[in-house]
Amino acid sequence: MRRQVLLFLSILLLRAVISQVSYSIPEEMAKGSLVGNVAQDLGLDVKRLRLGNGRVYSGDSSDYVELNAERGVLLVKERIDREALCGDTTPCALHFQIVLENPMEFYSVTVEITDINDNAPTFEKAEIKFMISETAAIGATFDLERAVDLDVGINTLQTYVLKPTVYFVLKLQNQADGTKNVEMVLQKPLDREKNEFISLVLTAVDGGEPQMTGTMQILITVLDANDNAPVFTQPVYKATVSENSAKGTVVTAVSASDADQGLNSKITYSITSTMDEVRQIFEVNEENGEVTLIGRLDYEKKKLFQINVRARDNGGLTDSCKVMVDVVDINDNEPVIKIMSKSTVISENANPNTVVTMINIQDPDAGKNGNVQCFLHEDIPFVLKLTTNNFYSLVTEGELDRERASEYNITVTCSDEG
């Protein structure tokens, strides 16, 4: 895709200074809180910030941080919710620039947003029900709902506790994605005549300070014979789907079998222990196991989905599998050109390679779809130079003569490789 922008330039001296500074602050700081003394850290005079029209340039991202040019400091402009900003991505950081005019100076700033323990583990359901045969063998496992904790690091979900443990004990297995698979294992024979109903409590515990927990009740009804649990044909299913796929597209199908006879062998499929966004985008047919697209995909927002699917027979026995869905990028975004400098004048005796303005190019597509090249059409005494990733400088290349040309209309064209 191609995008053009027109610059109107009159024939002041500009220079570019590129430097950077980094800060780290916790999320949820109050508006007006100090992020850092950027003037001191960059070696700038506060007067220079003020007279140079110092400002924060953040592209398309929200302005969470503002520059107080009178004090030379960065302040929190809007409350920052790390989970809303970055989800489970770590590290979570804001990237922006401080731009000064006359002469032009360009500084990159990174502000890492650290997590605080502001979210308790939560279960999607307050309770879950099982119907288990009294002939279930010792060691039989039953897949449980996993909790979700939006925090990261030590503040996120760490472990589970199951009480009481007369009939069942907890089995936790670490998964490749960092989560834990949660199962309860039968350790004592069930007797329907003694205990037809069993009630357990599963507690999810995070590692924050103070520690936060979430609970779910497990209600078990003890039934007559059902010896075999369903078994998926494979533990992990992999699929790919284009980000522009229509609703109703079948992504893949899972399949489980049960060796029991009659009603006990009937299997139903469901999505379990999954973030809400997954349920808004995918659904599983409870009868045939087809995983279908019901929402809109956007590669630039999320590239990989993990869908946890459970197979349950009529006797309450279960098995679980994972469906890993890779989203394939399409070239659905044009390059966005942003002019960072407000200056439109330059002295005719400016030296070669004098920076006229800075241009920021943004294309969220991946691979060649997001590789952008910019160029000038006209035969003019200016040239575009790639300064840093996604930033171009428009600089002088030849001599300027106001008597021959007092102004230039410059068209910058940027194209991706999609």
UniProtKB/TrEMBL annotation:
Keyword rRNA-binding in record: no
Keywords linked to the UniProt accession: Calcium, Cell adhesion, Glycoprotein, Membrane, Repeat, Signal, Transmembrane, Transmembrane helix
Record bears the keyword Transmembrane helix: yes
Coiled-coil blocks: none
Pfam families in alphabetical order: Cadherin, Cadherin_2
Subcellular localization: Membrane
InterPro entries: Cadherin-like_dom, Cadherin-like_sf, Cadherin_CS, Cadherin_N, Protocadherin/Cadherin-CA
Domain of life assignment: Eukaryota
Mode of membrane association: Single-pass membrane protein
GO molecular function: calcium ion binding
Signal sequence region: 1-19
GO terms, biological process: anatomical structure morphogenesis; homophilic cell adhesion via plasma membrane adhesion molecules
Domain Cadherin: residue ranges: 17-123, 124-232, 233-337, 338-418
GO cellular component, one term: plasma membrane
Function: Potential calcium-dependent cell-adhesion protein. May be involved in the establishment and maintenance of specific neuronal connections in the brain.
Protein name in UniProt: Protocadherin beta-15-like
